[in-house]
Amino acid sequence: MDLSYYPGCTLKTIAKGLEDSAIASMNALGIRLVELERWNCCGTVYSLAEDDLAHHLAPVRNLIRVKEQGGDRVGTLCSFCYHTLKRANLLVRNDGEKRKTLNDFMEEEIDYNGEVEVVHLLEVLRDEVGWDAIAGKVKVPLHGLKVAPYYGCTLLRPQEVAIDQVERPTIMQKLMEAIGAEAVDFPYATECCGSFQTVGNPDFITQRAWEILSSAMRRGAEAIVLTCPLCHFNLSQRQPELAQKYSDFHGMPVFYFTQLLAISLGIGPEVCHFELSSGEPLSLLKSKKLVS
Amino acid sequence: MRVEISSRRLGSDFVKKVAEISGQDLLACNQCGKCSAGCPMCFAMDLLPNQIIRLAQLGLEEDIAASNTVWLCASCLTCTVRCPRGVDVGRVMEAIRLVTLRKNVDYVGASDIPKDRIGELPQIALVSSFRKHTA
Fold it and tell me: What per-residue confidence (pLDDT) applies to B7?
């Protein structure tokens, strides 16, 4: 099966490990991710102002690209892209007046009425591949790896875009169990890492990262697993500072869910681009004899 | 703290603008504090999110302008999904930011970010920050 795929900007740079491991894993599971021929930045954040239609143009144009190619669905990997495309799509679908204004302004070849469905890859894994089928394809079960699923914000809030229960998601826990890892539940799983405040207020991100990582550590996690390139950056990049400040902190690897999926499917670490990650993720996998 | 409440302030342009841009009924808030209880950035805020809503209800624009709260909001929307009165607090924070930004005032300037950090920051961080914090 083919699935139209919108990568977004960050997956072409520091989150290359998320993209390549996803494409390879989905291939192994029988789904070919086909990148859109043309796409632009999604705008990253959904405008929360009633009178600001201009910032909905970027995500809507991407949805038009999907429709132009004859697609009725688009898959996303980055949590920010998922959120922005999904919400802009719902706006166009549900608000006739704004839909008309947007279409009149864009002067695209075709009008857009919200026909495309926006899905996150985790939803595809759950709803179309299924946990049992994934478990059946696992070649290297991640036995002995204790990993804490961290969801962050944009996959779960607000309710209308949530891929799982808003306050008590289990989708990544189920994926981790399907690939043989031990999922560690912890109270900060859905708390925000501080997001884009990393640009103007990096010290506050250090504090957020410590609260989240130390909570996972207290629950016995050896690593974090997540979907969002910004959460990945915020939780891994502050770790050297945290190690200096807290003597009992020795670093905690942060994985994209697709990296652990690829390893479990026996694809090998090359597609994971661990060279772009800090916190020694490869060393942890080697110590568990999950990669050679 | 002595606070002057007047009908002039309650019906001020500021209150109208915040209500219009956010699409929210500010008076629906009954100050339960649930938004502040769940806010991940409130450790660094000088006023709590529910206090900002209260000040907005009363039209106390200057007190809001002097506070760092709306600028530290990360739009994580925890407050929005938990508000028992259905107030989308994230939208109120955005509206208050926009009232300032639309006066052509930036909170973050691209030139303030050290060059080595610009190179390492993910694009989604930079674009989001500029979207939320620049005019």
Answer: 87
* Cβ <8 Å between A196 and B129: yes
Q: How many domains does chain B have?
A: 2
Same domain, yes or no: B94 and B50: yes
Determine the Cα–Cα distance for residues A74 and A63; give it in Å rounded to an integer: 8
- As a dihedral over the C-alpha atoms of residue A206, residue A76, residue A278, residue A230, rounded to 10 degrees, the angle is -20
User: Of A192, A215, A241, A277, which to mutate for an interface test with B (greatest number of B Cβ within 10 Å)?
Assistant: A192
**Residue B1 forms part of a structural domain:** no
- Tell me whether B57 touches chain A (CB under 8 Å): no
Q: How many interface pairs between A and B have CB atoms less than 8 angstroms apart?
A: 135
Q: Does B77 touch chain A (CB under 8 A)?
A: yes
Chain B residue numbers with beta carbons less than 8 Å from the beta carbon of A230 are 122, 124-125, 128
Asked if A1 contacts A31 with a C-beta cutoff of 8 angstroms, the reply is: yes
Q: Which of A58, A56, A44 is nearest to A92 (CA)?
A: A56
pLDDT band of residue B6 (cuts 50, 70, 90) is confident
Instruction: Give me the domain span that covers residue B129.
Output: 107-135
Q: Structural domains in chain A?
A: 2-121 (1.20.1050.140), 130-287 (3.40.50.11810)
What's the ipTM? 0.95
